[in-house]
Structures are given as C-alpha cells and as structure tokens.
Write a structure and sequence with these properties.
The chain is of the alpha/beta class. The protein is built from eleven helices and ten strands. A six-stranded mixed sheet has the order 6-7-8-3-9-10, with helices on both faces. Strands 2-1-4-5 form a four-stranded antiparallel sheet, covered by helices on one side. It starts with a helix and ends with a helix. The relative contact order is 0.15. The protein binds adenosine-5'-triphosphate and magnesium ion (MG). Magnesium ion binds next to helix 2.
Length: 278
C-alpha cells in the first residue's frame, strides 16, 4: 500500500482507446477518459448506452476488449486478483442496483467497510458512521432496519457506505435516482464537497443534466457506441452538435436513439415466438 500511495499517479482513472462489451457484443468503442484527484467527472448518456459497463471496467469486474484501463496508474486488465483487490480497496462504489444487507440495520450497513478494511475501535467506527449518515441526512435513522426505510433513503445509505472509507476514487452510478429535489441537491453538493475536502477523484454517472453540470469539472457524453462529446459543462452547453443539444434539452426527436436496437438475438427470439403461436 505504501509503495502505491508514495507514487500517486496523475490520474486516478484513465481509459486509453478502450472497447467494452460482453462476449462478442461490443457496447462502447474507442473510449479515452481521464479522471484526476479532486475532479468530479460526469458520465452521461441514454439508457443502455454503456455507462454502467464503463464503471464495471473501472472496478475490474469486466476486462477491456481493446485498449487499457488504468486505475491509479496500474493496468487493471493485467493485474492479478490480489492486485485488483488492493486497487478496489482504494475505490468506493455506489452501484446502480446497490443492494444493502437486509439482515443488518442502517448503521451496520455503513459500518461494514470499516469493519472489513480497518482496525478502528468501536468509538471511531461509531463516530465515522454517524458522521457519514449525518452528511446524507440520516443520522437519526441509524437504528432502523433496511425493511423500515424508503427507496430514496436506501440510496442515501448506500451512498454513505460507498464513501465511509474516504477512498481516493469514488464511482457513483445514478446517485440521484429516486431522490426528492431537496435530497438530490444535497447529494450533489455532498459529492462536490467530498471531492474538494478529500481530494478524491469522482466519476458521476447520471441522467441529471442540471445537477451534474452544476458540480462537474468535465462531462463525457456516450452514445451510439462511442464517446459522443466531452468537455467542460460550459463547452458542452455552448456546443451546436445536434446530439449534445438533444441530450441536454431532453428533446424526443433527433439523433439520440430511444429504441433499444434490434439485434440478431432479438430477431431469432421473435421468430421463435411467432412460430410457437402459429
Ligand atoms: N451482463 C451483461 N451481459 C450482456 N449484456 C449486458 C450486460 N450488462 C449490460 N449489457 C448490455 O450492455 C448495454 C449497456 O448496458 P449498461 O448497463 O452499461 O447501460 P447504461 O448506460 O448503464 O444504462 P442505464 O442508464 O439504463 O443504467 C446494454 O445493451 C445492455 O443490454
Ligand atoms: Mg446503468
């Protein structure tokens, strides 16, 4: 760990000409992206465009079909299982389907990474957990069972759990989903203040143009299987690219596809359905 932190690389996360997908299906190609310490980088794009896939590549859950994914300067595709594990310890992840442990209460869910990865005593654990729950407005919900909290509250507990270790790189997959406007604004400010206070690098996957443009340093827009646009919120807002403008304005008509594209696998399934009915 000391060897890794002493040579802290310039980029917490770097993608170099990366292609990503599943089996022989390629979701995204030719993606290059940099995330530095202290930066909030927003990744936006339509549903199914490959945002979560990108996050899976950053954590080493999937390997790139082409190109390199560097986490803290190390090529995660060439790393051993142990090396991937130690890189993962330096990341906090808020998964899109971030399930909480239903047999643990709110407090124990947030305490879990601390108990797994640190030797903090109970007093420090309590202080750190209540501090993070306070940041998401749920200090007084610490004792509740997971079955006793709402969907939006569960998202905020998962967020507190993702940041409790104060990691160097935090990956947020749809942190605003299911939040009311006030919680959403507070969560956005929390993401920004964690980046500023801890100097951590943040990747923010979201559909929320307004909030992400308010807090992001860089925005990457993915679509049509590639990087559709990248730049600061100001440059993207001023872009006259019809794809960028349609996405930012949420207009129904334009180059951004709404329908999931038809694949040979779908055609095969459909003809089997029809044959069964005939
Ligand atoms: N485990 C998997 N195996 C095969 N295909 C997958 C798998 N996970 C996702 N896909 C496909 O990869 C594409 C991108 O999915 P992904 O989850 O990355 O999209 P997304 O941009 O995160 O969408 P959303 O905004 O809806 O969360 C989709 O076509 C999806 O069907
Ligand atoms: Mg997703």
């Amino acid at each position: 760990m000391s060897a890794q932190t002493s040579s802290t690389p310039e980029f917490a996360l770097r993608l170099e000409g990366v292609a990503l997908g599943y089996g022989d299906f390629t979701v995204l190609r030719d993606i290059s992206m940099d995330v530095r310490a202290g930066q909030v980088v927003a990744v936006m794009g339509g549903s199914g465009s490959g945002k979560t896939t990108l996050l899976r590549a950053a954590t080493g859950q999937i390997t790139a079909q082409h190109g390199r994914v560097l986490a803290f300067g190390q090529d995660i595709g060439n790393a051993t299982r142990d090396e991937v594990q130690s890189l993962r310890k330096r990341m906090g992840v808020l998964f899109q389907q971030g399930a909480l442990f239903t047999d643990l209460n709110v407090f124990e869910n947030v305490a879990f990474p601390l108990r797994e990865h640190t030797r903090l005593d109970e007093t420090d654990v309590t202080e750190r957990v209540l501090d993070k729950l306070d940041a998401v407005g749920l200090r007084a919900a610490a004792h509740l069972k997971v079955s006793e909290i709402s969907g939006g509250m569960a998202r905020r507990v998962a967020l507190a759990r993702a940041v409790v270790l104060e990691p160097e790189l935090i990956l947020y997959d749809e942190p605003f989903a299911g939040l009311d406007p006030i919680s959403l604004g507070i969560t956005a400010r929390l993401i920004r203040s964690l980046a500023d206070r801890l100097g951590c690098a943040s990747v923010l996957i979201t559909h929320d143009v307004h909030e992400s443009f308010a807090i992001a340093d860089q925005v990457y827009l993915v679509g049509r299987g590639k990087l559709a646009a990248a730049g600061t919120p100001q440059t993207l807002s001023a872009s006259d690219d019809p794809y960028v403008q349609q996405f930012l304005k949420g207009e129904p008509d334009g180059p951004v596809a709404f329908q999931y594209p038809e694949t040979p696998a779908f055609q095969k399934w459909l003809s089997e359905q029809k044959r069964r009915k005939a």
